[in-house]
Amino acid sequence: MADETLSIRKGSLGSCGMRYHELALQRWLNSTFYVRVGYPIPIVFATPMDAFGAFDRLWRSDNNPYNYLLALVDANGKPLYEPYPSNVRYPLISVFRRGWKYRAYQNFSIFQWRPINWPTVEREVTLSDLGETSVGHRPMAWDYRWQIDHYAMRPDTQAYFIEALMRCFWRTGGVPQTWIPVHYPAWGRYNVRLYLDGDIENTTLEEPEERKNVEFRTTFTLIMEGFSVDQDIRIVPALWEMLLRAQAVNPGELTSALVLQEQEDLRLHNENYAMLRRPHLPPNVITPEQRLAQQGTYPPWEVEFQGTAQPQAYLNFGRTGTDPASPYFLGGIPQTSGYGIATVVT
What we know:
By secondary structure, the protein is an alpha+beta fold.
């Protein structure tokens, strides 16, 4: 899978903004905070009150996701964690969703994003693959907010965690911040801003209960400047139509011009001149004869010019040559020339 997101099905849990932003946050926490180097602190997505209970249930399950901790030993070779029914141990990190806030200054969802990507994941890209592109609306900007709680049984463990937390936000720009990668469906991998909202608070009980261990707890809030991605992707030709007129176009004519009347594949006979000027193009594995047999031929369209341009001309879309000696010239317009406004007649 090229970018870890192309196989996500639309409508599935993996396509939800909450899901792929939480996975990005979890990867960042796992790669930043450790029990020992190489052993990430266990993370549970739960409320602060339910964090230890959720961790305990997962530790007792048959497919314990934290069983990597069983290989962790101290300097004397003694295991720091023991399998169930032994009690689970701290440290522990809980993640709790606090809400979502619309971010207007970075939002462009009313616009279309035309060249999202080529609609193929094949390693061997052909010339025919380059003739189509994915189109969708630009993303909506939302702030994803989480409350993070760190639990420890020793003050030095808490101090080590707070120091590591401070240092990972060294890219200060008004607030402590950093950038982390997020894998978006259809988009791929992008870096987004993650910053600390408010203070790092010590929420350890001032008077712990008698005959109970002291639980050192640290609380802070993180905000990720994420995006909600439009997954209603459409596949369209990579070339766009032009409406040429010497005067203003009324709404009716503009609507009719945008209605698809006929399609023409400019890959036939390698006639996409704009694309062919690019270097290092892959070969077209489908021969023009095979393509013609599949799609047939189309008659030229008659185009009436107004204003200072030619009074009458004929365009054979997809077969317009720039060489007057070409059988496909037919009064066609070279791409480098400037003409008046044309209206499709037939």
